[in-house]
Structure formats: structure tokens, C-alpha cells
Design brief:
single chain; about 70 residues; mainly alpha; about 0% strand
Length: about 70
């Protein structure tokens, strides 16, 4: 994974990837790829629940990241 601009997001994503990467299927890999293309500020807003999750982003993946906080 490339460096992100916020240490908080890098830490959260790294923790999730470490535990989930081996179990991702093709759809999960694509969802993760889309997620990693988003800005840190957007990701934090979706994880915090202060902004709606757009339809192109897997809401279930955001939910799993919320549980990892």
C-alpha cells in the first residue's frame, strides 16, 4: 500500500488490510481498490458518519473500518 497523507488513515487501513487481505475475493479487491482511490478526508467523514457514503464506495467496507476504530 502506498503512503497516505494522514497517519490515522494509514494506520486504520493497514490494520484492516492485515486482517482481511487474504480473505478478499475479486469483488472485495475491487471495493478496496475504489476505497484506496478516495481522499483521506472523505474516508474519515464516511467512517465518522458525518457524510453519506457514495454509491461507488462499498458501504460494508466502511462499516468494517468503523468496527476497527
Amino acid at each position: 500500500m502506498g503512503r497516505r497523507s494522514m497517519l490515522e488513515m494509514e494506520t486504520l487501513l493497514a490494520r484492516h488490510l492485515t486482517s482481511a487481505l487474504d480473505s478478499l475475493d475479486a469483488a472485495g479487491c475491487r471495493a478496496l481498490e475504489i476505497l484506496l482511490q478516495q481522499t483521506d478526508n472523505d474516508l474519515l467523514d464516511w467512517i465518522a458518519g458525518v457524510a453519506p457514503i457514495p454509491p461507488e464506495v462499498d458501504a460494508g467496507l466502511i462499516q468494517r473500518l468503523r468496527g476497527g476504530r
